[in-house]
Every structure is written in C-alpha cells, then in structure tokens.
Backbone:
C-alpha cells in the first residue's frame, strides 16, 4: 500500500556519492507497507529479545523509553528506488539494548519481528557497533504509525524493508532465516550500493 508521506528536512544540495545506483533523491517520505497499519495501545506495547524461541528480556513502553537514547542522522534507501537524505531519528541503539539485557550476541543472525506478523532477517554485524537502532522518534517527533510507530527498526545502510516497522522483538537465530519479503523473492541481504533488490541480484 502506498500513501502520501510527510516531509522532513530538505536534503543537502550536494548529493554526490550519497545516492546509490538506480535511486533518486526525494524531499518527501513515501509510505509503503506490506500489511495494514496496526495501532498498538502503549499499555500493551512490549519489546522482547529472544535467543531462538527463548525470551531473555522484555521491556514495556515505559521501560524501553528509559533506556539510553541515541540520535541518528542518516540517508535511507527504499527498494522502490527512492532515497531520502539526512533523515533524523532518535531511539535505542542495538548496542545499548544488548547491554541492558546483559547479552553478548550468541549467533551471527537475527530476525526482527513486528506487530502484524511482519519479519525480516538482518545479520548481527549490521546491527551492532553503532549501525542500527530501534527508532522511537523521527525529526524530533514521536514516530507516526504510518511510518512504523510507535517503534521501528532502523538499519539505514540496507534497503529500507530491513528497517521493520512496528517492531516488537529481535530474535537470534542459528541460521540466516528469510523473513516476509525475503520469502517472496527479495534479496537476503539488501545492499543498496550493490543493487541487491531481488534474489539473484
């Protein structure tokens, strides 16, 4: 589904070296979702960290917001060929999330899970060392539901379908398990600079 998004900061005039092959810079923020937008009451929201099927830590909304907050300004790239430059986010880094759980990454792979049944796979090396966060705010405001609020995974160096909307958990897996779009022919990794849109790219 596609609807009009909202505009944030205008991208810098010099975009050289920042827009991957096959992409075009946009001032807007298109809304694309695999499933209808779920609306989650804050008193029912939670985020769970799992190792395989076993939960190791769960946070309520209040507990999650009490974790250290990180600000992130990054370019983002959608598989539908738009790029938005200098987007401003705030949330909990995956590094701080693991530290709060007292957990070192036990496997090389993760699945992000969302309200509504969506999932996507991301290698742990693409989530740690300051590369990713669970975003709670965009452009200084709470993240709107149509853009993944109240919380979405943000992995800006991969195509944006990896930045799962409405995220409610991260699961460590022994192997690289395909998620929603990967099962439907999208690339298992999704590097914009290598144009890894579909399996075989």
Residues:
């Amino acid at each position: 589904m596609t609807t009009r998004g909202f505009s944030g900061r205008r991208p810098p005039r010099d975009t050289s070296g920042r827009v991957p092959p096959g992409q075009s810079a946009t001032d807007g923020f298109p809304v694309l979702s695999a499933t209808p937008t779920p609306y989650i009451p804050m008193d029912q929201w939670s985020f769970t960290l799992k190792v395989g099927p076993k939960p190791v830590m769960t946070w309520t909304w209040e507990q999650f917001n009490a974790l250290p907050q990180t600000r992130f300004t990054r370019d983002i790239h959608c598989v539908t060929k738009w790029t938005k430059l200098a987007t401003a986010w705030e949330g909990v880094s995956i590094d701080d999330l693991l530290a709060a759980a007292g957990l070192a990454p036990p496997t090389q792979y993760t699945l992000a899970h969302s309200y509504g049944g969506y999932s996507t796979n991301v290698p742990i090396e693409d989530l740690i060392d300051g590369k990713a966060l669970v975003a709670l705010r965009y452009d200084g405001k709470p993240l709107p539901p149509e853009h993944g609020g109240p919380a979405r995974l943000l992995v800006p160096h991969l195509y944006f379908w990896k930045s799962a909307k409405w995220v409610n958990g991260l699961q460590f897996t022994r192997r690289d398990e395909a998620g929603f779009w990967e099962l439907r022919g999208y690339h298992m990794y999704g590097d914009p600079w290598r144009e890894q849109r579909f399996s075989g790219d």
